[in-house]
UniProtKB/TrEMBL annotation:
Residues 309-371 form the YknX-like C-terminal permuted SH3-like domain. This is Efflux RND transporter periplasmic adaptor subunit. Residues 90-212 form the Multidrug resistance protein MdtA-like barrel-sandwich hybrid domain. InterPro entries: Beta-barrel_RND_2, MdtA-like_BSH, RND_pump_MFP, YknX-like_C. GO terms for molecular function: efflux transmembrane transporter activity.
Length: 385
């Protein structure tokens, strides 16, 4: 009998504790409902609703107080990230025009030269002498032409002799031009303005024709070659801006513009080659650097909701929508996450609906809710715990 009385007393204490837990702990009812124990215990959904207002003046535990935000609309973005290779706007390899010994080298490794500046001079004594000889022969040919024309005026010479003199004068003029050209080949000028790379030349070195002297690089702009997936073909355009970050300087973000688009999609990778330009005013970038390129294209119009409204279950993300003062669960598909909103697609959800952002812990399908003003969000948070 003593054991029976102890058993009855224990069951009474357990039942009382269970009743208090169900009545005053908001999270108890959803937990028991998911476990399928509400019907077993005979607890009706409206049990707490009849309790009315509590001593604090807030709604009873059967009506959940929540904070909501309005569902908006926003145009989604299609973002593409690619790795591109940089190269200089122009790069010219300067070669020797002739065979000879370097007598003057106006270059410094890493220096800058202007277009047209003489950077290398070769020994030119032989060419200088040849030019002087050609000029002497030209003066002699001119004098002979004057003499023959005087004789021809007096009838002392023939037309054939005059023709020969004119041809000799023309040949002498061409010989002077050839000598001047040969002399000009003994000095090499910079074809573009640009920066000098590492050089391995010294005055006194002998070079042959077509030997590489130096490489000049115009890096006032950096060209970036990168590839985009074929889905971007309809959206990408010349002149479109993009963000670019040097991989070696990850905290530096620059803006470039697309300058050229290839006409063929690569069959193997299903990508399209694109070229962009980035200004290098600070001379921070170099040819050969790798870049992270970010392109953004406008997409479809999607529903925008607050990040706090998104809840998760074993079936995926969902939100609680307040309709007729009751909670309705709506499954959503997350399309894009931004810092201030989440873009979703969902059936049964439209712009202007109210989604619950605070007080979601006690909600269940069809539960009555009361939307509290935003300034009571702290109170709602305490009640939902």
């Amino acid at each position: 009998m003593k054991a029976l009385r102890q058993l009855v007393l224990s069951l009474a204490v357990l039942a009382g504790g269970l009743y208090i837990w169900i009545t005053y702990v908001p999270a108890a009812r959803p937990l028991l409902e998911r476990a399928g124990l509400l019907d077993l215990l005979g607890v009706e959904a409206a049990q707490n609703d009849a309790a009315g207002q509590g001593r604090s003046g807030r709604p009873s535990r059967g009506v959940a107080a929540v904070i909501t935000e309005t569902v908006g609309e926003m145009v989604g973005e299609d973002r593409i990230t690619a790795i591109g290779d940089g190269r200089a706007r122009r790069s010219v390899t300067v070669r020797s025009n002739a065979v000879g010994v370097i007598t003057d080298l106006s270059l410094a490794a890493g220096g800058y030269v202007e277009s047209g500046a003489v950077i290398v001079k070769l020994q030119n004594e032989e060419e200088t002498i040849a030019l002087e000889q050609a000029r002497i022969q030209l003066e002699d040919a001119r004098a002979e032409e004057v003499r023959i024309k005087r004789l021809q005026a007096s009838g002392a010479t023939t037309e054939v002799r005059l023709r020969e003199t004119e041809l000799a004068l023309r040949s002498a003029e061409l010989a002077v031009r050839q000598a001047e050209f040969d002399l000009s080949q003994r000095q090499i000028a910079a074809p573009i303005s640009g920066w000098v790379g590492i050089i391995d030349l010294e005055e006194g070195d002998r070079v042959n024709a077509q030997d590489v002297l130096v490489t000049l690089t115009d890096r006032s702009e950096i060209l970036i070659d990168f590839r985009v997936p074929e889905r971007a073909v309809r959206n990408i355009k010349v002149g479109q801006a993009f963000e670019v970050t040097p991989l070696g300087v990850s905290d530096e973000s620059l803006t470039g513009k697309i300058s050229a688009i290839d006409s063929v999609v690569d069959r193997a990778s299903r990508t399209l080659l694109v070229q962009g330009r980035v200004a290098n005013d600070a001379d921070m970038l170099r040819a050969g650097m790798a870049f992270s390129v970010n392109l953004t294209f406008p997409g479809d119009t999607l529903l925008a909701i607050a990040p706090l409204a998104v809840q998760w279950s074993s079936d995926g993300p969902f939100v609680w929508v307040v309709r007729d003062n009751k909670a309705v669960r709506v499954t959503v598909d997350i399309v894009q996450r931004n810092s201030g909103e989440v873009l979703v697609a969902a059936e049964g959800l439209s712009a202007g609906d109210q989604v619950v952002t605070e007080g979601v812990q006690t909600l269940r399908e069809g539960a009555e809710v009361k939307v509290a003003p935003p300034d009571q969000s702290a109170s709602v948070a305490r009640d939902s715990q």
